[in-house]
Design goal:
The complex is a heterodimer of chains A (509) and B (163).
Chain A (H helix, E strand, L loop, with lengths): L7 E4 L3 H14 L2 E6 L7 H5 L2 E4 L12 H11 L3 E3 L9 H10 L2 E2 L4 H8 L1 H10 L15 H11 L3 E5 L9 E3 L2 H19 L4 E5 L5 E9 L5 E13 L2 E7 L6 H18 L3 E9 L5 E7 L6 H8 L3 H9 L16 E8 L1 E2 L5 E2 L2 E2 L2 E3 L6 E5 L6 E2 L6 E9 L2 H14 L1 E3 L5 H8 L2 H4 L7 H7 L6 H24 L10 H18 L1
Helix pairs in contact in A: 4-5, 7-8, 12-13, 16-17
Chain B lengths: L1 E6 L2 E10 L2 E6 L2 E10 L3 E6 L2 E10 L2 E6 L2 E9 L15 E4 L4 E6 L6 E2 L4 E7 L2 E6 L4 E6 L6 E2 L4 E5 L1
Antiparallel strand pairs in B: 1-2, 1-8, 2-3, 3-4, 4-5, 5-6, 6-7, 7-8, 9-16, 10-12, 10-15, 11-14, 12-13, 14-16
């Protein structure tokens, strides 16, 4: 494949990841084309892109998931390539094939590879063939309930029920005993059907107290494949990652090397091209078990970028342009330590209930070693229609201990007013002795949350003082000057009048 | 000016005097000198006995939510001088289930007349690609279901009444 630099790339996504890809394009001198739904006209990715085209109404199935509309936008804009980000159409083999057929480069693996590795049981068969250990369980989905029950007995309880087309924790059920199998099967099938349009499920042995560790890979069109080491992703809620770090505090140099070699073996066997991630569970005896492959850019790629110095998104674009990888495995090193916290519009004190709404005020941390990959801004209304990820806060430092301290500092600087976010959760996790010791598994977050929070008496005092002074200034301003004017006692007094005035107008209308 | 501030279930009598950024407060009769500068509409810098605190401030119908780095504290305020008392939450009588966020009603799980336990699911609302089962605030009979399946609701909208 001969190398050909892209002039224009369409970004088939929204939110922080669309912004991330647009930034890479801008730095590479490539024109970027954003697509947007009716809700997203004023979204950050639209504001930052060189060009932007509407692709339909708010629901994603009528916009961001519409292969025809995304391709029409690509053709209309003259983009030579499409970057799918993650989610939406990123792991949709039909979309990759449609791009291939339209003569537009899909920045990712070939459509056959997406199909092969996207179906979870065929990915498991490929892994077995490449000599990669897989979690004991079925290599084919089964339909018959009796057969599934017999298979569960053979594997041994506890077992995990999983959607064959799965991902993102949907259709996933832990089954501890035979009595739970039947209802769990019904729920898993209905969830999988709803999420993926495919009800098929399979069984795996449930690993007790697992760590979730994944390996980032890059492969070009010239037969070169490397791994960019691991990411530790065991801090999860509802099987979705909240905090990631690299290196993993769990891995020994020997285990790291072995997992990297296994990942590259699977990549070479399947003829995989572009960026991908192999997810493993590591059990209490530190044995890795292949779980699944994500055939796309991963949300948590910044931690890999910070410790390796490789820009994963630019590497994706260069690979898609037909360039050979500019480095070999022996050129790559992990330097220092990186942590990422995912800032979601969710209330951690109310079971992670979504919290869409308008961001009234926003202060983003900065300073040494801090990176914020955001898709939002002050004044933006976070819509109810899409994923609640607002931004990813990442830090780099020379050691893990310093990285934890730096993240605590950055979290303390980060303020979002107007909607609830997962920010308050991070301080609780980062300050936890088990996290500081690097000794945690995928059940950590539930345990940390159950421990509750401690509030200092001083904060209550300061809160009461701040609230009372504001109320005092608003009332004084309202009494001094019933109409807004130069006599305004303070910014807050004026603000209070505007708000009161607005409410009056609202109640009349 | 005197306020009754309700925070974490207890009420504190607060007196505020001063202006121009310098305030003398008393919190349940214990004095507190505060230097406060607003930073835009939603932040404030406070100097209290040499300590520097920066907080986010969000207005709510009952008062304010004050944001700290790892936490947010809800402060309900009533002006005591006008004889308006702090809002008291009713412990008896019908309890309402309201939408904690805007979203779409996916399912109504219980019809009016149904006997429900405290914490039993009443309405499922979808927001941000997730379905959230909203639970009965108390045990009793469903008196009213205020929404239909498929309906869009705003935050704070009444969903059901249980008595």
């Amino acid at each position: 494949m001969s190398a050909h630099a892209f002039r224009k790339v369409l970004v088939a996504n929204r939110g922080e990841i669309a912004v991330r890809v647009i930034r890479a394009c801008r730095e590479m001198g490539i024109l970027s084309v954003a697509v947007f739904s009716e809700k997203d006209r004023a979204a950050l990715h639209v504001r930052l892109a060189d060009e932007a085209l509407p692709i339909g109404p708010a629901p994603s199935r009528e916009s961001y998931l519409r292969i025809d509309r995304v391709l029409d936008a690509a053709r209309a804009s003259g983009a030579e390539a499409v970057h799918p980000g993650y989610g939406f159409l990123a792991e949709n083999a039909a979309f990759a094939r449609a791009c291939e057929e339209a003569g537009i480069v899909f920045i990712g693996p070939r459509s056959e590879t997406i199909a092969l590795m996207g179906e979870k049981t065929s990915a498991r068969r490929e892994a077995v063939a490449a000599g990669v250990p897989v979690v004991p369980g079925m290599l084919e989905p089964l339909a018959d309930e009796g057969e599934i029950a017999r298979e569960a007995e053979r594997i041994g309880y506890p077992v995990m029920l999983k959607a064959a087309a799965g991902g993102g924790g949907k259709g996933l059920r832990l089954v501890a005993s035979p009595a739970e199998l039947r209802p769990a099967l019904a729920r898993a099938r209905s969830e999988a059907g709803g999420a993926f349009g495919d009800e098929r499920v399979y069984l795996e042995k449930a690993i007790v107290r697992p760590r979730h560790v994944e390996i980032q890979v890059l492969a070009d069109h010239h037969g070169h494949a490397v791994h960019l080491f691991e990411r530790e992703c065991s801090i999860q809620r509802r099987h979705q990652k909240v905090i990631e770090e690299s290196p993993s505090p769990l891995l020994t140099p020997g285990l790291r090397e072995r997992m990297g070699e296994l990942a590259v073996a699977l990549v070479k066997r399947t003829g995989y091209v572009n960026a991908g991630t192999l997810e493993f569970l590591v059990d209490e005896g530190r044995d890795p078990w292949f779980l699944e492959m994500n055939t796309r850019l991963q949300v948590e790629h910044p931690v890999t970028e910070m410790v390796t110095g490789i820009d994963v998104v630019k590497a994706q674009i260069r690979i898609a342009q037909g360039e050979p990888l500019a480095f070999r495995q022996e050129d790559l090193r992990q330097r220092g330590h990186s942590i990422e916290c995912r800032v979601y519009a969710e209330d951690p004190d109310a079971g992670f209930l979504p919290s869409p709404g308008t961001i009234l005020a926003l202060r983003v941390p900065s300073g040494p070693g801090v990176r914020d990959d955001s898709g939002v801004y002050e004044g933006w209304t976070v819509p109810i229609d899409y994923d609640p990820l607002l931004s990813k806060l990442s830090v780099w430092a020379e050691s893990r201990d310093e990285a934890v301290r730096r993240m605590r500092r950055a979290v303390a600087e980060y303020r979002v007013v107007g909607i609830k976010t997962t920010l308050p959760l991070f301080e609780r996790v980062l300050a936890h002795p088990a996290f500081a010791a690097g000794d945690y598994d995928t059940s950590f977050l539930d345990t940390a949350l159950a421990a509750g929070k401690t509030r200092r008496g001083r904060e209550v005092e300061i809160a009461v003082a701040a609230a009372a002074i504001r109320a005092y200034e608003e009332r004084r301003a309202a009494r001094l000057s019933p109409v807004a004017g130069p006599a305004a006692a303070s910014a807050w007094g004026a603000a209070g009048r505007r708000e009161a005035h607005g409410r009056r107008l609202g109640s009349q209308g | 000016m005197i306020f009754d501030a309700t925070v974490e279930g207890r009420t504190i009598r607060v007196e505020v005097r001063g202006g121009g950024g310098r305030y003398s407060l008393s919190l349940d009769a214990s004095p507190l000198e505060v230097d406060l500068v607003p930073i835009g509409r939603h932040f404030a810098s406070l100097l209290v006995a040499g300590e520097s605190h920066e907080v986010g401030i969000e207005k709510r119908p009952e008062g304010f939510v004050v944001h700290f780095p790892g936490d947010a504290v809800s402060v309900d305020l009533a002006e005591a001088a006008r004889g308006v008392s702090a809002p008291v939450r009713r412990a008896h009588g019908p309890a309402s289930l309201t939408a904690p966020m805007p979203g779409r009603v996916v399912r109504v799980l219980e019809a009016p007349g149904a006997e429900v336990a405290a914490g039993q699911g009443l309405v499922v609302i979808e927001a941000m690609k997730m379905e959230n089962e909203l639970k009965s605030p108390r045990a009793g009979r469903v008196l009213e279901v205020a929404v239909r399946e498929g309906q869009a609701v705003e935050a704070g909208a009444l969903l059901a009444l249980v008595g």
